[in-house]
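Incident log, structure service

09:12 report received: a user says their structure output differs between two submissions of the same chain.
09:20 pulled the input from the user's history:
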Amino acid sequence: MELYLPSYINSNRSIKRGRRIPKGAAVENPTSQEIGDVVKSLGLKYEVQPKKHYTRELDRERWQLGRVKVELLDGEGLPIHETLKSKGELMQYVATMIPKLKSRSAKAPEQQA
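09:34 re-ran on a clean worker, output below:
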């Protein structure tokens, strides 16, 4: 199982602080629950661990807590999903889908007020 932390796809983080995809492809302040929601929609086996945190996180605010374990490969080492075959591909996909989540679109009007 592969580990995914919100910092890996957080546009507010530097590479030194844990971001693993290009800043332009990253999303602002993702949560482990949002990552889990996107992975669930793909039909992959996953587990959200809400109490875990990234060792590079200095402030450990509540929204930063959590990680997601995802099973990308079957027992023989073959990809389970036909288009997402690596950890990097899944991170990029998750980062593009989080802004489209209903939970994100519901928060947007509140932040503008």
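09:41 both user submissions now match this output. Likely a transient worker issue. Closing.
09:42 reviewer note: The chain has a mean pLDDT of 86. The radius of gyration is 14 Å.
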